[in-house]
Amino acid sequence: MYGKILLMAGAVVLAILFLYDPAHGALFPKCPFLLLTGYKCPGCGSQRAMHALLHGEVKASLGFNALLVLSLPYVITGFWLEWLGGKQGFPNFSRRFFGPGAAKIWLAIVLAWWLLRNLTNF
Predict the structure, then answer these.
(1) Cα–Cα dist 112/99, whole Å
(2) Alpha helices, DSSP H only, in the chain?
(3) Does residue 57 come out as left (phi exceeding 0), alpha (psi in the -120 to 50 range) or beta?
(4) Neighbours of 67 (CB within 10 A)
């Protein structure tokens, strides 16, 4: 049941992102971390990246938030496997790629991305 609600909510969000450009409108929130510090958070540019990606502009979306774009296959695979049966259907794969070890690796990747994008202005 929650999966269907999440899927419908995701579809609504994607439709809104497709129809409205987050760069030009008050509908989308601005990053409070960027507003307060002047530094980009790991998620900065995600809305614009998804908008560009939904319009087939891969290069532009990578420029807005490369981590988000490059993470999408991993996230989609996780949702797909969960839909197919999750840990019961693919226990070794789920544990290895979506378990506590994977969470630590993703945390390290996000922190590295956060530093990289602010030190290099990427």
Answers:
(1) 20
(2) 2-19, 32-37, 46-54, 58-84, 86-89, 91-98, 100-119
(3) beta
(4) 20
Residue owning tokens 């969960």: 82
Asked if residue 15 lies in contact with residue 51, where contact means CB atoms within 8 angstroms, the answer is no
- What is the token pair recorded at 53? 């990606």
Which residues fall within 8 angstroms of residue 22, CB to CB, at 6 or more apart? 28, 47, 48, 51
Dihedral-angle region of residue 44 (phi above 0 means left; psi in -120 to 50 means alpha; beta otherwise): beta
The pTM of the whole model exceeds 0.85: no
48 neighbors 37 (Cβ within 8 angstroms): no
57-115 pLDDT, tens digit each = 999 999 999 999 999 998 888 777 776 765 566 667 767 777 888 889 999 999 999 99
C-beta of residue 10 within 8 angstroms of C-beta of residue 18: no
